[in-house]
From TrEMBL:
Pathway: Aromatic compound metabolism; phenylacetate degradation. SUPFAM superfamilies: Acetyl-CoA synthetase-like. This is Phenylacetate-coenzyme A ligase. Monomer. It holds the Pfam family AMP-binding_C_2.
């Protein structure tokens, strides 16, 4: 997995801009976008008036803290188009979240917004080591989910050969990897492990394919998962980050030279990290909630949008030469942190414990209930296809599947590992492959909290 000595940039002027020039550019764009939304989006005008702040009050970058936060609740309150800053006839694309917790979050794009989106996704691909003319297999979901189309247009802008295969259908993915000579593949990290296991079980070994890079995002993952993917297939695995409310994929991406934090494209996205409880800024290196302001969006800019994602930022120089700050891997979500019998539990802890366990797929869900006065945590985990076939699972389901001796033994092993990792006892349920519900983007809802809301 050799890395070229000289880094390649997509937009070298912006990606290597000295910090003082970058911050001047950010201030100019921040002042423009605050004035823009104040006069075009009634919801923002009302919130700014209530906070006693005018666009003219933004004289320095630090003045952004005078502005009120935006949350997903604001987007749902104004559903569907109340946060748009342009008339609907100037919007040429609409995407939306899956809406699993209520009304979907709707986002719009002007033609220029789509150009910016393609630009930042092209940067992501170059950061990952992709090159013009290479075959790009896009296994993110297409449709209202932003993952598929965002990366699609970025790869076309870069000049790659795009294969819009979308998610799922693993046998077809393997055929395309082999027959089309794919160099770069994008998907969720959990699906990359599925691909790796399927390739190995079909007799492929590192070096048999042209595949060099996996670009992985849309769900949290760990260094353990990276090592497993890279070692099994002899490829690079790099992290991409984005969210629909900000633009979709393309907010930040790891560079292949360092793989040590994702560079945020600060000419388009102004980042803050705040204490999730108080909203106060935290210093670099401290984990807090990521907050983004879009500096160039036209159809639906967001001001100080609270993502719910927990991470830290690193402003120190990177070996790749880019001057953008780097964000750490997302360590959890403010709404995903669980307190079970006095112990803080994050899905990422469960994931880290499960990686590398034989016969267990990287698909899991945490279900929290309350029995009497005590909270109970159940971890549902899918087994691998190979294990399912081995125990005759095609013919079995439900209680019969769970009663098989091999399944019981695996469940006990998973239980032991999770109890040790979390420091509390959990109930483990093993399920057949592909039985935990997924959204249209292929993501699992990691946490289901069924505790009474008024308790």
């Amino acid at each position: 997995m050799a890395v070229q000595a000289k880094p390649m940039y997509w937009n070298e002027e912006m990606e290597t801009m000295p910090r003082d020039r970058l911050e001047r550019l950010q201030l100019e764009r921040l002042q423009r976008i605050v004035d823009y939304v104040y006069h075009r989006v009634p919801h923002y005008r009302r919130k700014m008036d209530e906070a006693g702040v005018k666009p003219s009050d933004i004289r320095h970058l630090q003045d952004i803290t005078k502005l009120p936060f935006t949350s997903k609740a604001d987007l749902r309150e104004t559903y569907p188009f109340g946060m748009f800053a342009v008339p609907l006839n100037q919007v040429i694309r609409i995407h939306a979240s899956s809406g699993t917790t209520g009304k979907p979050t709707v986002v719009g794009y002007t033609r220029n917004d789509l150009e910016v989106w393609a630009e930042v996704c092209a940067r992501c691909l170059v950061l990952s080591g992709a090159r013009p003319g290479e075959v790009f297999q896009n296994a993110y979901g297409y449709g209202l989910f932003t993952g598929g189309l965002g990366m699609h247009y970025g790869a076309e802008k870069l000049g790659m050969v795009v294969v819009p295969v979308s998610g799922g259908n693993t046998s077809r993915q393997l055929m395309i990897l082999k027959d089309f000579g794919t160099h770069v593949m994008a998907c969720t990290p959990s699906y990359a492990l599925v691909i790796a296991d399927a390739l190995l079980s079909n007799g492929y070994r590192p070096g048999d394919l042209n595949l060099r890079v996996f670009i992985l995002g849309a769900e949290p993952w760990t260094e353990g998962m990276r090592r497993e993917i890279e070692e099994k297939l002899g490829v690079h695995a790099v992290n991409i980050y984005g969210l629909s409310e900000v633009i979709g994929p393309g907010v930040s991406n790891e560079c292949i030279e360092a793989k040590n934090g994702s560079h945020i494209f600060e000419d388009h996205f102004l980042v803050e990290v705040v204490n999730p409880a108080t909203g106060e800024p935290v210093p670099p290196g401290t984990v807090g909630e990521l907050v983004f302001t879009t500096l160039t969006k036209e159809a639906m800019p967001v001001i100080r949008y609270r993502t719910g994602d927990l991470a830290s930022i690193d402003p120190t120089p990177c070996v790749c030469g880019r001057t953008f700050v780097r964000m750490s891997r997302v360590l959890g979500r403010t709404d995903d942190m669980l307190i079970i019998r006095g112990v803080n539990v994050f899905p990422s802890q469960v994931e880290a414990a499960l990686v590398g366990l034989p016969h267990v797929a990287p698909h899991y869900q945490l279900v929290v209930t309350r029995e009497g006065r005590l909270d109970q945590l159940e971890v549902k985990v899918e087994v691998t296809e190979a294990f399912f076939r081995e125990v005759g699972g095609e013919l079995l389901a439900g209680e019969v599947f769970e009663s098989i001796e091999a399944v019981q033994g695996l469940r006990e092993k998973v239980n032991q590992v999770l109890d040790e990792a979390l420091g509390i006892h959990v109930k483990v349920t093993l399920t057949p492959p592909n039985t935990l519900p997924r959204s249209e983007g292929g993501k699992l809802r990691r946490v289901v909290d069924m505790r009474p809301k008024d308790a």
